[in-house]
Every structure is written in C-alpha cells, then in structure tokens.
Amino acid sequence: MPTYPTFEYGKPRFDQNTFFGRFRHFLDVIDPRTLFVTEERLRESVDLLESFKHGRLPPGVTSAQLWQAHKIKQAIIHPDTGDKIPMPFRMSGFIPFGTPVVVGLLLPNQTLFSTVFWQWLNQSHNACVNYSNRNASKPTDMSKFFQGYMGAVTSAVSIAVALRVAIQKADRFSPTTRRMVQRFIPFPAVASANVCNVVLMRHSELSEGINVLDDKGNVVGTSKMAAKRALFETALTRVVLPMPILLLPPIVMAMLERLPVLRSRPGLLLPVHSLVCLAAFSLALPLAISLFPQMSQIHASRLEPEIAMATRCEILTYNKGL
C-alpha cells in the first residue's frame, strides 16, 4: 500500500495541541464551499477513504486528495450515525445560514415583537445545529434537548425584553445614546442563553461524570471533576463566541453611518450592515471554538482519588465536546 506520511485516517490534519493548529482545523470544518459538494463527489470521497483504510488505493492518489476527501466527509456525514447532516445545520452552514439571524438581532429600532422573534429564531437555529452535530454514540434524551431549548429561548427573550424596557424608561439617556445602547442588548441576552443551553442540556454530566482516558485511549474511569471542567470550558466558549459578532458590528456601524455616502444613500445601510456582520461572524466562530482542544488534558491529581490511583498516567484526557 502506498504510504502517505501527511495523512492519518480519522485524525485531524493539524496539531490540536496548539491554538493555531485548532484554528486551522476549524477553518476547514466551517468552510462553506463544502455545502456545494454534489452527491457524486461525496460518494467518491467516502469510497476513496474506505480504499485507503483497507489498503486498496488506486495508483496516483496524493495526500492532498485524501485530506480533501476527509474534509468533505467530516463536513457532511455525521461520524456516529453515518447519515447526512441537513445543510442549514452543518458546521459549514453555521455562518451563511446564521448571518441573516445575526443581522436581524442587530437591526436598529427594534420593536418588542422583532426582539422576541429574532431571539427565538437565533436560539432555534443554535438548538438545531447542536442537535444535528451531537454525540450520537448513545441514545439522545429528547426531554433534555427540549429542556435546554426552552431554557435558552426563555432566558434570551426575557433578558432582551427586560433590558429593552429598562433602557426605554431610562430618562437620563438621550435618544441617540438610547439608540446606541439598544444595539448592544443582544449580547448579554444571547451569551446568557448560550450558557443556559449548555448547562441544561449537559447538566447530567455533572452528576454522572464523563469518561477520562489514558495515553493509550483506554477508559480509566468516569469523573465528575472532568465533567465540571468540560462544562466550564464549553460555557466559556459560548460566551466568547457572540462577543465579536454582537459587539463589533454596532461599533463599526456607528462609525460608518457618519460617512456622507451612507447618509445620502440610506438604502446601502442594510447591505453594509450585513457584510460587517458576516465578517465578524466568520472571524468569531473559528476563534471561539479553537480556545480549548476538543480532547482536553487534565492532571490525574486534579481528579477523584480513585481515578488517580487506577492509572500510572499523570496526564489524562477527556472529550470536552463542541
């Protein structure tokens, strides 16, 4: 069988122990070009990877072709179920399908109805993405999914509406200041809802624990301490993710709206606003999910005593999840 030193079946292409390696990996994962892959191209990619796995590669296949096939498969096929992930809910579709929602969240002069609608749509989209990309190695408890979804929607809408009402009643704000402050309301609403979603959907991990592995990939035990850390890392990622998306566009748009060209042509405001949101979204997503490795490491001494005593490895790993 031909050897391909730069390709390892089933493993990421870039080093996951460094932020830059994880960043490059997730740029591949969210690449929207994979949304346009045809059924035939997908089938060819899957067949090529299977041929490599069983040592039956056709002559002339390069490592670049293998990595491209791997990229296509991981973008479209769920690793546990083997089924195609619906296009709007793939990680590669998160930015193109999520950007219109972000634009809606950041529209100026929101009414009460529009505030509720866009917060609901945002959390609905997030919930569908989370479910479609879930760990499906075990049966999914739909009651936990529904509980997380309802908690996220309720917290997002409640905080957004409460802040909106409070700002409207704040007499010390001038109309211009009030309008500017209202643009930042989506961030605390979305950030708190994201944390609520993670905690509600994964709270059972805190009581049941998650698997920790040794350096050979063997399960050493089930740790509540590792679960606590995994949940914290995931929640922190969910807080960081909307920061550039929901904080940068209002600042940039406040400056751009002063330009004569946009003052004289108000019809350009929405397209420019959309482009600014798209740029912020494209940068924020890979940065946020690259903060921590999916397979995180923890010193055995920081886990339960019985787990530390069950292995000679000082450093253990656990799957943080996305």
Topology:
Blueprint: H1 19-29, H2 39-53, H3 63-76, H4 94-105, H5 112-132, H6 142-168, H7 175-182, H8 186-202, H9 204-208, E1 210-213, E2 219-223, H10 224-240, H11 242-256, H12 260-264, H13 269-289, E3 295-299, H14 305-309, E4 315-319
Antiparallel strand pairs: 1-2, 3-4
Helix pairs in contact: 2-3, 4-5, 4-13, 5-6, 5-8, 6-8, 8-10, 8-11, 11-13
Radius of gyration: 22 Å
Major sheet: order of its strands? 1-2
Q: What is the end-to-end distance?
A: 35 Å
Low-confidence regions: 1-5
Structural class: mainly alpha
Number of helices: 14
Instruction: Tell me the major beta sheet.
Output: 2 strands, antiparallel
Assembly form of the protein: single chain
Mean pLDDT equals 82
What does this structure look like?
With 322 residues, this protein is mainly alpha-helical. It contains 14 helices and four strands. Strands 1-2 form a two-stranded antiparallel sheet. Helix 4 crosses helix 13 (269-289) and helix 8 (186-202) packs antiparallel against helix 11 (242-256). The longest helix is centred in the middle third of the chain and has 27 residues, at 142-168. The radius of gyration is 22 Å and the shape is globular. Residues 1-5 have low confidence and may be disordered.
